[in-house]
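Much of what follows relies on a compact textual record of a protein's fold. Each token is a code from a learned vocabulary of local backbone shapes. The record below shows the convention in full.
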Amino acid sequence: MSDYFEIMMPDVKSKNLIESEFHQAVEEVLSSLSVVLERHPEYCSMKILERMIEPERVITFRAARMVVYC
């Protein structure tokens, strides 16, 4: 099961480059779920963890800079 984590973590880190706290949280969750994944390897093939760590919604916005001439 550690192979699964070793494959998954670089992908998580590449998608969320500057989110070191998120990386740590994902590693903690993955380590706590290792027993469950050993008992149910089908969860790995169904990509349950990948769906758990993807944000449901991402909100981005852009504020335009306004230039005022006097």
About this structure: Helices lie at 2-15, 20-32, 34-39, 42-45, 48-53. The chain has one domain: 2-53.
